[in-house]
Amino acid sequence: MAAWSTRAAHPADLPRLHSLLADSHGIAATLPPELLADAVARGLARVAESDDVVLGFIAAEMPSAEHARLSAIVVRGDTRRRGVASQLLTETVREISRRSAGSPLISALAAPEDLAVAGLLLKGGFIGTRAIRGGGEGGGLHVHYQYKLRVEYIDPDARYLVPVSARDQLVESLAPSDHAVTAVVTLTGEPAFEVARFERDDPATLQSGEAAAGIAFSGSVLAAITFLLGFAFASGRFPDDVRLLLIGATFSTMFSLIVYASASGELARIRSNSFGKIMKWGNVLSEYGGVFPFLISLPLSYAQISGDPWTTMTLAVAVSVSIHWYERSEFSIAHRFRRSRGEVALMAVTAASPTIGACLLSVHITSWPWTALLAAVLVARTWLYLFRRGAESGIAEHRQWQIRL
Question: Rounded CA gap, 274 and 264, in Å?
Answer without folding.
Answer: 11
